Amino acid sequence: MRSDRNRGGQFPDAYQDSLLNASFSAEAYDDQAIPWSSSNPQAFHNQQQQYQDQYGLDPDVAFSSNNYDYQYIDPSQHHLDVEPSKTLWQRIWSREALKVLFWCTGGILGAVVQNVYLAESGKKLRQYPYFIYWSTTIPFNLIFGIALAGVMCFTDQITYQMRRISQYKFATIGFLNAINGLLLLFSNPHVPGPIQALLGPTVVTIPLTMIVCFIFLGHRYNWKHLVSVLIIAGGVFLAFYPSIFSDYPSDVAGTPYWNGLWLLGSVPLVLAAVWEEKLFGSEQVHVIYMVALSMMWQTLFVALSFPVDAIPGFGTSSSIKEIFTHQHEALRCLARQDISDLCPDCDCDQAWWNLLLFVVGYLMTNFFQVGVVKYCGATFFYVVSTLVVPLTEFAFSWKALLGDDAVALHKYNYLALGVLVIGMPLFRMAGRATLRDNSQEFGYYTQDGFAPAVEDPSLLQHNVHVNSQFEPHYIQSYE
Fold first, then answer.
1. With pLDDT > 90 as the criterion, what percentage of the chain qualifies?
2. How far is residue 266's CA from residue 272's CA, in Å, rounded to a whole number?
3. Does the pLDDT value for residue 3 go beyond 70?
4. For residue 259, which of 26, 204, 254, 367 is within the disulfide window of CB 3.0 to 4.6 Å?
5. CA separation for the pair 97, 100 (Å, rounded)
6. Beta-strand (E) ranges in 28-122?
7. Within a 10 A sphere around the Cβ of 476, how many other Cβ atoms?
8. Are 305 and 178 in contact (CB under 8 A)?
């Protein structure tokens, strides 16, 4: 019988755990067990020597009766398979480390590609933002529709309770995401890439979600949240400053009008996140089911929103008839036909593959960020989502990548970037908010139990997903 005293780590944990798992009672192994006493000195000495040779342990420590009064081991039937200690180099190149490297690298690369080639698609098809708006919804509908069909046909994960969820919940998400895409894509050609990175969703959704959750969900925040949000707000102001108070040209600093619309494009995304948090907080919903249905509703709202392209000062068409003419011209450009007489600013040789890379970046973002959250944990998720901002910023200024479209960074870009890279991790380290009545944190009921929510909409838990193909986001399916 084993004594519990003095287990204070006198020999390696892995060996200690294996030793405990291989412990047996004297009654069960009377004939084979080797007692830790002097009654059988030769067998005890042989066993000491065996473990000393195999594990490099000091037999006076590992087999001391001060650690355990009695220990019965059947070495013929129960081999203690203990992994030897690894060097630093072995840890760096271990399977676990390579897995983290794979998922994190893919997540960062996918988000940067999505950001950069969304902006580049807008430049190559500058006169046709509504075409990009509706055409990019088609492949995503097909992909998620096929995924949903597969889940429903070959699994029982889509339950009867899920199918009974009211469609207005999915329709609301689809409507908000449609507004999100509308504001982003129509302002996209007018906002320089570095400004898009600094005023994009990874940054501005943090303070916006905090405000919305405080007003509508009754969340309370500590002083660390407030300080970090003020720092982020300072970074946003520095990003805006050149377009308002300096003499930088609009192709470098943007304009207050279009920069403001780009920033406002994240507001519907935040509202969609809070809406999902509120409505889906007490019931399970499969992520594929929610994405597919909300995408279907989003496509309907996108199709009905075509008149906005004729709004003066916002759209690029002068009449309803010209909207349809522009769609035909954009299709010709995508087929690499020469339309320079109709759209002098368009680059039809590169438009198709820029749009394709945007779609690929979106799919990579979804796939790899699921892996980051599932296999690497929240710490690495924070690293990935924070690194996306500076890497996207520098990607827009990289001439080897974008050629003549590269935008030189100015001092306000660097200042804003430095402030934001400090503020974003501080917010994520500030902890989670609670409800005003001091009840349990708001969260989601999943098949694994209660999962607390967080105030960063890019880290919604388990069954909630911000479904916008126009902004990098992070999803987590059932574990």
1. 30
2. 10
3. no
4. 254
5. 5
6. none
7. 22
8. yes
pLDDT given at position 221: 84
Residue 310, pLDDT above cutoff 90: yes
Residue in the block written with tokens 């009211």: 166
Give the residue from 289, 293, 286, 288 showing the smallest Cα distance to 446.
Answer: 286
Q: Do residues 258 and 243 lie in contact, with contact meaning Cβ atoms separated by under 8 Å?
A: no
Q: Please, how many CA atoms are within 13 Å of residue 178, restricted to the half-sphere of its CB?
A: 21
Per-residue three-class SS string for 252-286: HHCCHHHHHHHHHCHHHHHHHHHHHHHHCCCCCCC
pLDDT for 352: 93
What gap in Å lies between CA 180 and CA 195, rounded to an integer?
Answer: 17
In whole angstroms, what is the distance from residue 211 CA to residue 27 CA?
66
Half-sphere exposure of 425 (CA within 13 A, CB side): 15
Q: Strands, E, within 401-477: which ranges?
A: 434-435, 443-446, 449-452
The answer to whether 182 and 308 have CB atoms below 8 angstroms apart is: yes
Kindly state the DSSP code that residue 403 receives in the 8-state scheme.
Answer: G
Backbone angles phi, psi at 270, to 5 degrees: -65, -45
How crowded is residue 359: how many other Cβ atoms within 10 Å of its Cβ? 21
At how many degrees (to 10) do helices 201-216 and 266-279 cross? Answer: 50
Distance (Å, rounded) from C-alpha 84 to C-alpha 53? 12
Asked whether residue 317 carries a pLDDT value surpassing 90, the answer given is: yes
**pLDDT averaged over the chain?**
75
Q: What is the CA radius of gyration of the chain?
A: 29
CA distance 435 to 123: 44
Q: What is the pTM of this model?
A: 0.70
Element (H, E) at 137: helix 137-154
Note the Cα 235 to chain centre separation in Å.
22
Q: Domain map of the chain by residue range? A: 13-85, 92-459
Beta-strand ranges (E) seen in 161-227 are 219-220
pLDDT for the residue 443: 39
d(CA 275, CA 298): 15
For residue range 120-173, list pLDDT tens digits in order: 999 999 999 999 999 988 888 898 899 999 999 999 889 888 888 889 889 999
Count of helices and strands (H, E) across the chain: 21, 4
Mean pLDDT on 234-256: 85
Residue 341's CB is within 10 A of a number of other CB atoms, namely: 6
Interior CA angle at 295 toward 292 and 298, to 5°?
155
Q: Is 447 exposed, middle or buried (0-12, 13-18, 19+ CB in 10 A)?
A: exposed
Give the model confidence (pLDDT) of 332-374 as tens digits. Answer: 999 999 998 999 989 999 999 999 999 999 888 878 877 777 7
